[in-house]
Design a protein that fits this description.
Largest sheet: 7 strands, parallel
Number of strands: 9
InterPro entries: AKR (IPR020471), Aldo/ket_reductase_CS (IPR018170), NAD(P)_OxRdtase_dom_sf (IPR036812), NADP_OxRdtase_dom (IPR023210)
Strand order of the largest sheet: 1-2-3-6-7-8-9
Distance between the termini: 43 Å
Order of helices and strands: HHEHEHEEEHEHEHEHHEHHH
Shape: globular
Oligomer: single chain
Domain NADP-dependent oxidoreductase: 101-265
Protein name: NADP-dependent oxidoreductase domain-containing protein
Bound molecules: adenosine-2'-5'-diphosphate
Structural class: alpha/beta
């Protein structure tokens, strides 16, 4: 990063156009394009391997963004992580999964969680000022309640799968009552993803009919539904036109009678984390992971 920064400064002062390469060449232009389109929240995780590149892009180009960084649940992973948290505004536990120290997320590396110990490490990060907010991800109502029972600093956010086909009604109400912000990943139902097994969100007939009535795209209506529910939404797109389409949802709204239609949609959890059902993970069934919320 130091060298790259010097290059940027040299190029700027010489008026030379700078072209940036990194391990994933999509990432820097992508986060730059998202910022240009007006996005203010970029979602990172150790598991996405996008921390370094997004960090560079932020350092060089971006201001006023909300950066989420998610760690694999292990207090032992927190030490080195503190180092690259200088720019991070929000830190969250990626899920109720824990991996052996120094390994990457994969089923054979999973071990049973120790949420109180990990949360204690997160609270230290918060106390140190390195993270402006701490939170969790993929927590069920039960896991959130259990966390509240032991937390000195309550979680600011729970980032979970949430869209019209998996509305998380119970969790939504719990988060509201406890002042936890619900942030929605896969807000479009992750069309095209290999890990999604279930019905399409953006082709759902109710979503499509609301979109037709409002003369918006099904993706826009899906995201706008999330915003009107009070969530933040984290749509992913590598396509500039769709990046712009997905943020053009703040100068119109879904009227109440059409919002009511969403409650007729059959509910299916699309991202079930089957990988975590493993003899060493502490989860014998999907029911265990989600505490029956499936
Ligand atoms: P692409 O990158 O080609 O735009 P999610 O955010 O729910 O995980 O969904 C991400 C997927 O949805 C990506 O495959 C992305 O493809 C696609 N996508 C993003 N925005 C739209 C949109 N407005 N209409 C249709 N598909 C979209």
């Amino acid at each position: 990063p130091g060298l790259a920064e010097q290059r940027v400064q040299d190029c700027r002062s010489a008026g030379v156009h700078l072209s940036v390469f990194c391990s994933d060449p999509l990432l820097i232009p992508l986060s730059y394009r998202e910022k240009k389109a007006g996005y203010r929240h970029i979602d990172c995780a150790a598991a996405y391997r996008n921390e370094k590149e997004v960090g560079l892009a932020l350092k060089f180009f971006l201001r006023m963004v909300w950066l989420s960084e998610k760690i694999c649940l292990s207090p032992l992973n927190c030490g080195p992580l503190i180092m690259h948290l200088k720019m991070c505004q929000r830190q969250s536990i990626h899920g109720p999964f824990r991996i052996k120290k120094g390994t990457m997320m994969s089923p054979e590396n999973l071990i049973p969680t120790d949420i109180p110990a990990t949360w204690g490490a997160m609270e230290k990060l918060y106390d140190s000022g390195k993270a402006r907010a701490i939170g969790v991800s993929n927590f069920s109502c039960k896991k959130l309640d259990d966390l509240f029972a032991i937390a000195r600093v309550p979680p600011a956010v729970n980032q979970v799968e949430c869209h019209p086909v998996w509305q998380q009604d119970k969790l939504h109400k719990l988060c509201q009552s406890k002042g936890v912000h619900l942030s929605a990943f896969s807000p479009l139902g992750s069309p095209g993803s290999q890990v999604v097994n279930g019905p399409s969100v953006i082709n759902n007939p109710i979503v499509v009919s609301v979109a037709e009535k409002l003369q918006k795209t099904p993706a826009q209506v899906t995201l706008r539904w999330g915003i009107q529910m009070g969530h933040s939404v984290l749509p992913k797109s590598a396509n500039e036109a769709r990046i712009k389409e997905n943020i053009s949802i703040f100068d119109w709204s879904i009227p109440e009678d059409l919002m009511a239609k969403f409650s007729e949609i059959k509910q299916v959890r699309l991202l079930r984390a089957e990988f975590a059902v493993h003899p060493q993970s502490g989860y014998n069934t999907l029911e265990d992971i989600w505490d029956g919320e499936i």
